[in-house]
Amino acid sequence: MTSTVAVLGATGVYGRHLVPRLAAAGYRVRALVRAPASAAIGAACGAGIHAADIFDAASLRAGLDGCDVAINLATSLPSPIKQGGDSDCNNRLRREGVPIFLEACAAAGVRRVLQQSIAMVHCGGGDSWVDEDTPFVAPPETMVGEAMLAAREMEASVADSRLDWLILRGALFYGPGTGFDDDWFARARAGKLRLPATGADYVSLVHIADMADATVAALARWPSRQHLIVADDAPPRWCDLFGYIAAAVGAAAPESGGPVRFPSFRVSNARARTMLAWSPRYPNHRIGLAR
User: Would you call 220 exposed, middle or buried from its count of C-beta atoms within 10 A (0-12, 13-18, 19+)?
Assistant: First the structure.
């Protein structure tokens, strides 16, 4: 019997890559979105489109009715191509919206929930490799630190729920539609690309196509009640990442002294590889940034 999968936040970049893959894998897909007119990719893939908001329990219950699995991708973060996001709103979405989503799932009879989270909760590891078993390090009192705390609280809400759950902690997204790599290349061409501080910190990346593929694999395998890091195989230092980009466009090596937006994080994808029988098609930034 074919499962029906609801995707909350289906019009975001993650959802736009995920919905076609779910449809191709044979799932019936239901896109739960605030603005149905913006769900063109979902509609083109044959997904059912339902108006729903994470803070509106009634709309969520109606959209989730009859679904077997619910995937929550709802976020409100700015990016180089999306200036409407807001970090405070995103923290509220995680702390207050996710519990509403979970209760709506329970009320609608949804059996399983898959929650998007962030591998950035493992920031602060310095040069060391970290994984799902590494003890949590309290973040600094910064905007990013608050985002990490909100993500941990969101994860706790999911883990404490009565539902069968799975949490995917994605590394920093790049690839088509994310805007990050386009911004990096544009700044390199303009001579404006700067290393965060000295560029010695690590950054863990995941191509958006790999994140979507891992999600489809998670539905097929369903390692129940697990937190899994989804990242590529070789987290670079910022100096290696930005140095590669500058060299690729024939620009001078980027100078140091740029802003540091989050601490170093170097995460391992070993558990996701094993439990999902998945591996990234873009195992490092050099392959993923080829253009």
Answer: exposed
